[in-house]
Specification:
Number of strands: 9
Shape: globular
Number of helices: 6
Order of helices and strands: HEEHEEHEHHEEEEH
Distance between the termini: 17 Å
Largest sheet: 6 strands, mixed
Oligomer: single chain
Structural class: alpha+beta
Length: about 160
């Protein structure tokens, strides 16, 4: 099977199983971290913002789909976004990362939830099928920052795919 077919099939499953189709997409450029809120994201758009990668052996190996953002995609995202904001400097995010036990993705979730006036999900490791990463006025959002994993084959298998 061609890799682009595998990618599309995995993204289609992920999109169908996700609790929400609202996203907070992150991007870093020229030392600045940005966030864009996009509602009703389609599987085709998720595929455009994803790459097929290999899952680590601790995650069962096989394929994984990861969030990828580049300048061209970011320009498209900002054109369709409900809101776009500067989050912080890349240097500040890295300093927070070095001084914390949290990964960059979770720090991005915390910062963007606060920035957009939202609240984090009560359980920080809620499955993408069971809730959003944060909520703004009760509306759930999944946050994706540079290199975030959407899902992998092992997770899909364990969830009945």
């Amino acid at each position: 099977m061609e890799k682009n077919v595998i990618l599309q099939n995995m993204v289609n499953w992920y999109h169908k199983e996700s609790f929400t189709s609202n996203y907070c997409f992150g991007y870093k450029a020229k030392g600045v971290v940005y966030a864009a809120l996009v509602n009703n994201v389609s599987a085709d758009l998720l595929a455009k913002l994803a790459k097929l990668d290999r899952a680590s052996s601790k995650n069962g190996g096989g394929y994984s789909i990861k969030y990828k953002m580049n300048k061209e995609n970011w320009e498209f995202i900002t054109a369709i976004a409900a809101d776009v904001k500067v989050v912080c400097s890349e240097e500040y995010l890295e300093e927070c990362y070095r001084n914390s036990r949290k990964n960059r993705g979770y720090l991005f979730e915390e910062m963007t939830a606060n920035l957009f006036g939202g609240v984090l999900d009560e359980k920080p490791n809620t499955s993408f099928r069971d809730g959003g990463d944060f909520y703004i006025n009760g509306v759930p959002y999944q946050a994706k920052y540079m290199g975030a994993t959407y899902t992998n084959e092992t997770t899909m298998h364990n969830m009945g795919a």
